[in-house]
Design goal:
CATH class of the largest domain: Alpha Beta
Helix content: 10-25%
CATH architecture of the largest domain: Roll
Bound molecules: fe (ii) ion
Radius of gyration: 18 Å
Number of strands: 19
CATH superfamily of the largest domain: 2,3-Dihydroxybiphenyl 1,2-Dioxygenase, domain 1
Number of domains: 2
Length: 301
């Protein structure tokens, strides 16, 4: 079944800005462009991990999930079909375009486009960060984690946990303010998080990238001004995964969390419930209150 987040793709009017943002601010490396001038960013030896496609409006293009074994793709197709979701087997051309060996695609009940892949192409010892940096925690833990917003979080749990096998790590429930669930598929504390939002919409709130050194969080924080990147949440430490991080707005409506020191989970993990997101910090920047909480899209009735 699903073992990690392989890649994320978005459509965006500000795709070109990622050439500077992705390298100078994030410390990634540009890969050769994808089709139609799509900007591709590497954060490790995988061919690429982020694709930002020039478009008139911001939207999610795909979330790419990796399975360990080729045969697992067939299992994912059958699990989805039991749940009434049709997965398509992607063409050779699509797999080549994504730099993977095999691919299936499906849209979840909230309209998010997903791809499940096997055999993401790796180029060992080739990653060169775009600026001085110790690099990112990836490997078996995949790219990082994403937080999706949806109005019916219990249905979200049924789908991602019950159908796709994401295992609950924790809940954070702040009465009247936040209802969220965190899921692991490898030792990273969470690869997927679901947060409840008002009815009628769903969205992609943030991508977390974990750096290998605490100073890389500080260096990125220092660069907010130089790269004119708006802060979303100040420096802080999360209650559940203990990640020390800050959140900032990418050029494409969703946020990036630059994190360090996240705990790891194992087979003996017992889920907890917390009633606050941060031990300290992670204060919402006053200007961030005026921005949408991510790349939002309306839900079909
Ligand atoms: Fe996060």
């Amino acid at each position: 079944m699903i073992k990690s987040l392989a890649y994320v793709g978005v459509n965006s009017p500000r795709a070109e800005e990622w050439r500077r943002f992705g390298t100078g601010f994030l410390g990634g490396e540009l890969a050769p462009d994808g089709p139609n001038g799509a900007v591709r960013v590497r954060v490790d030896d995988a061919a690429w991990r982020l694709e930002i496609r020039p478009a008139e409006q911001d939207s999610v293009a795909f979330f790419g999930w990796q399975v360990d074994h080729e045969e697992d793709l067939d299992v994912v197709v059958s699990m989805l079909s039991v749940a009434g979701v049709t997965a398509e087997r992607g063409s050779r051309e699509l797999a080549d375009e994504r730099n993977v060996d095999r691919i299936i695609t499906f849209t979840d009940p909230w309209g998010f486009p997903h791809e499940v892949i096997w055999g993401q192409h790796l180029y060992p010892s080739t990653f060169r960060p775009g600026r001085a940096s110790s690099g990112f925690v990836t490997g078996d833990q995949g790219l990082g984690h994403i937080l999706l917003l949806m109005p019916d979080i219990e249905a979200g749990h049924e789908f991602f946990s019950g159908v796709l096998g994401f295992e609950l790590s924790d809940k954070i429930i702040v009465p009247g303010a936040l209802n969220s669930r965190f899921y692991h598929v490898n030792k990273r504390h969470h690869t997927l998080a679901l947060g409840q939002c008002p009815p009628g919409v769903a969205g992609f709130n943030h991508l977390m990238l974990q750096v290998k050194d605490i100073d890389d969080v500080g260096i990125a924080y220092d660069m907010l001004d130089e790269y004119d990147v708006p802060l979303t949440l100040s420096l802080g430490r999360h209650t559940n995964d203990k990640t020390f991080s800050f959140y900032a707005a990418t050029p494409s409506l969703f946020n990036v969390e630059v994190g360090y020191d996240g705990i790891e989970v194992d087979g003996a993990w017992v889920p907890q419930v917390y009633n606050q997101t941060a031990i300290w910090g992670h204060k919402l920047d006053p200007e961030a209150k005026n921005r949408p909480p991510g790349i939002m899209h309306p839900l079909a009735d």
